[in-house]
Amino acid sequence: MEHPGPPRGSVRVTARVLIVDDSAENLRALETVVLGLGHRVVRATSGEEAITVVESHDVDIVLLNSTMPGLDGYQTCARIVGLGWVPVIFVTAESNPQSVARGFAAGAVDYITIPFQPSEVAARVNQQVKLQAYQRDLRETNHKLEIANRELSRALAEVERLAMTDPLTGLLNRRAMTERLHEEERRAARYKSTFSFLMGDLDHFKRINDEHGHECGDQVLVSAVGVLRDGVRGEDVIARWGGEEFLIMLPQTHLDGAIATAEKLRSTMEGAITPCGSDRLGVTITFGVAEFQPEAGIDASIGRADRALYRGKGRGRNQVVADVPGPG
Question: How many distinct structural domains can be found in the chain?
């Protein structure tokens, strides 16, 4: 049930108060105080009835007598508190320290003795109303912050992804690949393993852009990336190194294995066709292959693959050329 309340952001001043007492006189006296505060009242005359009301109604505060037949106030309080956070204030003639301690042990938040002063009941009820409103506002604020934090985390992850990937192909960009290569360099040093590079460049790609337009060129580029992705292992890493140039890193792979992978990719690329409008476009690729040399470092090893690539370009393209280190 919806409650009328104050404007958004302020403390709610209207509460639904459950008064539990088997004494009609006590019920009337407490009801008079609560209604005078502008709150709404629900009555119960037994612990069992009170629990049923809390289970089925939107109750904000419970005023509870400790001495009732059947389920007594202490048992009722413990059951209500177990259902969820609803503050219970005992209003009872039992004023001895043991009863007060027992009430708080059962989960009560306050304790008022009979005979009571209406002003005391009013002050304690309103204090709980304000506290509930503050807690509700805090929960709402925390919930909004959790949502905002999740959205921020997603946004930051997307920004990081965009900063590390090529927007057209979805491959790692040069910066991200450089970081990944240095990670692999450290891993190879730790485990005494090796890795190799394939530097690939699409042949006569500028001609496709000039003759068929950049939109077709982009489609051919994306199709070529699909060939590369399908032809390598899950642990291999591909980056768009330049316009139509790609660098592939093959972990735990010696030169012979890298040459075989490059040849497989070259052969598959040669047979691939990309539809673009009424055209069916094909493209070939030339690879330079080099194995990482720890004494030379990352940049020099990539440079060797790059030089092998351009030797292949000079020999007619659509081929694999390996850089084989000399003795010593």
Answer: 2
